[in-house]
Amino acid sequence: MNKRQPRCLAAAARPPNALRVQNYLQRRIHMTFEIHSDITNRSMTIAARAMRRVLRRKRSIMWAIFGWSVFLFNALLLIPFDGEPFALDVRTVTSLLVEVMLLSVLLFQDRFNGMIARKNALAGTKEYHVAFGKDSYSVVTAATTSTFRYELIDALAESQDYIILLVKKRYVQPLDKRTLTGGTVEEFKRFLEEKTGKDFRRMK
Predict the structure, then answer these.
(1) Which of 85, 117, 134, 185 has the highest Cβ tally under 10 A?
(2) Choice among 30-34, 38-42, 156-160 with the minimum mean pLDDT
C-alpha cells in the first residue's frame, strides 16, 4: 500500500486545470458526433449548389457562359432590326418559350437538380442517421447501412443549417446541423477538418 501512495498523492497534487485538460482529451478520444437528417427539396437544393460551386466549379462557369450567351443571342434575334413591327408568329413564340426555359434553368438549376435528386432517392433512404467515429462514419437508413472512410471526402461545405459532405466526386450528403449531438457545431467542424485535411467552404 505504501508503494501506491506516492501515485495517489501525485495525482491529487495535479493542478485542477491539468485535470480538466486531461479529462477533455480523454473525452475527445472517444467522442462520437451524431446527426439525423432528411432528404428534402431544401436540403438537396443546398447540396446541389455545393456540388456545383465546389467540385464542379470550372464546369459550372463554362455552362453559365454558354447558357447566357445562347440566351442573349436568341434575345437579339427577337428584335426586329429591319424596321418591321414585332409579330407573335410561330417562330417568335417558340423563341420566347426557349428563352423562358433557358432562363429558368440558369436561375434555378440548383433547385431543379435538388428536386430530381430527391425524387430519385431510393425507398427507405429519405431519412438517415449518421454517426462519426475515429476512422470512419456510418450512414444508417431504413433500407441500408453504409460506412465511409474520411479519406473518401473530397470537400466540405457549410450553409446556415447544413454541413455538406462531398464524397468521391459524385455523391453529396447534407447534414442538418440543428440535430447535431456529441458536441458543438464548431467542434464538429474542427473534427471533420482534422479527419479529412480539408477546409470548409461557406455556402448561402
Answers:
(1) 117
(2) 30-34
CB of 163 within 8 A of CB of 175? yes
Written as one string, the DSSP assignment of 14-83 is: S-HHHHHHHHHHHHHHT--EEEEEE--HHHHHHHHHHIIIIISHHHHHHHHHHHHHHHHHHHHHTS-TTS
Sheet arrangement for strand 136-141: 33-38, 127-132, 136-141, 145-149
Mean pLDDT check: name the lowest of 2-11, 37-46, 187-196.
2-11
**Radius of gyration over every alpha carbon of the chain, rounded to an integer in angstroms:** 26
Tell me which residue has cell 480523454.
26
Q: Counting Cβ atoms within 10 Å, is residue 204 exposed (0-12), middle (13-18) or buried (19+)?
A: exposed
- Which pLDDT score, from 0 to 100, does residue 34 have? 94
CA distance 198 to 86: 55
| pTM of the complete model | 0.71
> Contact, 201 vs 157, CB < 8 A?
yes
Q: Are the beta carbons of 167 and 173 closer than 8 angstroms?
A: yes
Confidence of residue 11 (pLDDT cuts 50, 70, 90): very low
C-alpha to C-alpha distances, 44 to 61, 114, 131, 183, nearest whole angstrom = 21, 4, 20, 25
